[in-house]
Amino acid sequence: MLDKDYKPMFLWQKEFLSSLGTNKESYLLALERGEGEIKVYKTHIFQSGHEEENLIYIERIVKFMLWAYGGYRFYLSGNRKVSEGLKRIYSKEGDRSFDYEFMRKVYGKSLQFIDVEEKDFPEEKEIPLKASMEKRGYKIGFDAGGSDRKVTATIDGEVIFDSEDIWFPKLNSDPEYHIKGIKDSIDRAKEALGGRVDAIGVSTAGIVVNNEIRVASLFLKVPQEVYSEKIVPIYKNLAKDYSCPVKVANDGDVAALAGAFSLGQGRMLGIAMGTSEAAGYVDENFNIKGYLNELAFAPVDANINAPEDEWSGDKGVGSAYHSQDAVIRLAKEINIEMDESLSLAEKLKVVQKMANSGDNRAIQIFEKLGEYFGYSILWYKQFYPLKKVLLLGRVASGTGGDTLLLKAKEILKNQGSDIEIIIPDEKSRRLGQSYTATLL
User: Fold this and answer.
1) Residues forming CATH 3.30.420.40 domain(s) in the chain
2) Cα–Cα distance between 248 and 182 in angstroms, integer?
3) Which of 12, 179, 243, 380 can bridge 302 by disulfide, Cβ–Cβ 3.0-4.6 Å?
4) What's the whole-number average pLDDT of the chain?
5) Residue-level pLDDT at 216
6) Contact predicate 26/72, CB 8 Å
């Protein structure tokens, strides 16, 4: 049995809550982000005793909220010993120093934990990016990828120009390279529109807050001293340069939006399994909520001996279960030998090829990935109101992907869930990121 000590967070939480019996009290968490937006999570912990178990449980909730929603200030109502432990763990010197520093970089504020009485507990408040879904007008959609940039120009929803250009944003330290590349795409699209543009929508890799690029590997080489001045407001400056509204969204959210548009239904979480795990979410009104959605860093396995993430130093986080890393890790466990000189992507292809030819060891690997995925979806539903999950990425292709999908659906069915997993249809694939960006 592969990864026999795997402990899904969904089942772990279920066991913890059922173990409380009558010895329980409420515990409330609210995470503030952006311009006073608040996301609330309510749960229970032991009323007396079991202090270590209480802290372990709430710490995992805090960790998930941070990477799912993003934020810089927690309001906590409940046992003060829990909050004392959290303040120690999420600090410069604590076990979650990576998380502490990352959120400070994104939001420009140190992570805080504030104790409040239940009567003073804040209410949930969100300011979503409302997708216009409006096709009328002269619009430009721009998709900033790591290896190419795409642009689409539409008049009343009809594509009259599109272009895909290779660029090397991760290799250039001069922000003028990025600015010129973006403007080159938009200028050509504007020219195709006869010089008129009513709105620009942008789909981009990286973390977007208030239409600003706070963290993105696209600008990896740009020195920190010029990043804040040139890169953070790069798209806000477009609004001035082109005298029109500019809306910016993370590419994961735009992918989820494309899927929601094609099905005509929201409450969709998009998960892409590739080099890592990428995610995006659209609510019932096709709004992008502005969440962080960095589920690669969110916990999915409660096993204390789970794989350790090389970035954060934490164990059992999404990237080790919903990416090519999971395939390669399990291939080692089941003794599939591969040339160590191969890249990770090439190793994935080896296992996928084996699955396509019916190799039982490879099939077992993708069955395990399906088990991971099914239970993670159930766990994600505790934090995202879900109807559908859109499965994307190269890990989900071929016989292996079919096996993964089948097993995940089986897990959902056995747990009585009505969440539907879907793969992109031709319509959403045809839309593309840059076209969908015109509808922001």
Assistant:
1) 129-252, 256-431
2) 13
3) 12
4) 94
5) 86
6) no
240 by Cβ neighbours in 10 Å (0-12 / 13-18 / 19+) ranks as exposed
CATH superfamily ID and name for 129-252: ATPase, nucleotide binding domain (3.30.420.40)
Dihedral pair phi/psi, residue 428, rounded to 5°: -70, -35
Residues 6+ apart with CB under 8 A from 346: none
- In this prediction, residues 408-423 reach a mean pLDDT of 97
| Phi and psi torsions of 206, nearest 5° | 115, 180
pLDDT, tens digit (0-9, with 9 covering 90-100), for 1-27: 899 999 999 999 999 999 999 999 999
CA pair distance 353, 325, nearest whole angstrom = 16
- In 10 A of CB 310, how many CB atoms? 9
According to DSSP H, which parts of 209-340 are helical?
A: 224-226, 234-242, 251-263, 324-333
Architecture of domain 256-431: 2-Layer Sandwich (3.30)
DSSP state of 123: P
Residue closest to 29 by CA, chosen among 124, 126, 148, 93: 124
In the predicted structure, residue 430 carries a pLDDT above the cut 70: no
Strand ranges (E), 132-243: 138-144, 148-155, 158-166, 199-204, 207-209, 212-215
**Cβ proximity of 248 and 218 under 8 Å:** no
The token pair that represents 374 in the structure block: 């099914």
Q: Is 135 strand, coil or helix? A: coil
What pLDDT sits at residue 360? 97
60, 161, 203, 247 from 130: Cα distances, Å: 31, 25, 14, 10
Write down the residue that tokens 């960790």 correspond to. Answer: 63
* Torsion 311-317-319-324 (CA) sign: positive
pLDDT of amino acid 431: 61
- Summarised one tens digit per residue, pLDDT across range 267-310 is 999 999 988 899 999 999 999 998 999 999 999 999 999 999 98
